Amino acid sequence: MIIQKFGGIAVRDSAARKHCIRHIIRGIQEHGRVIAVVSAMGRAGDPHSTDSLLCVSSALKETPHASDVAAACGELLSSAVLSAELAAAGIRNELLYGTRSGITSEGPFGAAGLRADPHRLLASLGDASVGVVPGFLGMGADGLIRTTGRGGSDLTAVVLAKALDADAAEFFKDVPGIMTADPGQDPDAEMIGSMSYSELVPLLSVRRPVIQKKAALYAARAQVPLHIRSYSGCDQGTWILP
Ligand SMILES: Nc1ncnc2c1ncn2[C@@H]1O[C@H](COP(=O)(O)OP(=O)(O)O)[C@@H](O)[C@H]1O
Ligand SMILES: N[C@@H](CC(=O)OP(=O)(O)O)C(=O)O
């Protein structure tokens, strides 16, 4: 089994999602089963992105529970869309949300911790080769939706990789892999083929890190192999191995 995480850019539109579906097909061939974790579609300005949903009403800023439910709509919609497009491509899949995913979130709204119950997820998956999971959120024992902080779909992927003892967590980004610096800021940035967790963490204290720092720290503690790569290209990407 492999966990494949598709970020907001990777699922932005149907052309981008065709690349994601190709990665999922390859994932099935190479690893047997794929759990696809998705983020909300696009970035600020795109209608269903997290930023756009949080701007639907300024009142959301004052209401953390309602704000988390509004934000969760982005990942839920994205998972529904990818699941439907996989089915249209002839790939049977299970949409794993709410109690079906086995993911629980406890703690403050907007900054909750995540846990995964692998037995519950596997029972919902049945004999399907692909499960589609909305990242970034979970449900508490009280039945309330809580999100885990910006960039949190990365954390969902790593938590699932550990709980399911997956071969790796693969992240599909709008860059070819991890580079010596953010290529958007430094045109001379160079690709890094492989690195350790301790080399990765210092690169993540920037406004837009290549992977969420909380997720990278969790992966380091849990010794989850990470593979960061381009959603649209066929570059080798960057491996972070225990
Ligand atoms: N060292 C780095 N190497 C590569 N990308 C980096 C680095 N530091 C910051 N970034 C930024 O990380 C972003 C992560 O990719 P993105 O596709 O936005 O992720 P996601 O959609 O999964 O959150 C890139 O667009 C890039 O600007
Ligand atoms: N959609 C959430 C969670 C996330 O991880 O998104 P992305 O993978 O697009 O950074 C956010 O924007 O924070």
UniProtKB/TrEMBL annotation:
EC number: 2.7.2.4
Residue span, Aspartate/glutamate/uridylate kinase domain: 2-229
Catalytic activity, reaction form: L-aspartate + ATP = 4-phospho-L-aspartate + ADP
Record GO biological process: homoserine biosynthetic process; lysine biosynthetic process via diaminopimelate
Keywords: ATP-binding, Kinase, Nucleotide-binding, Transferase
GO molecular function, one term: ATP binding
Name of the protein in question: aspartate kinase
This protein's GO CC annotations: cytosol
Family: Belongs to the aspartokinase family.
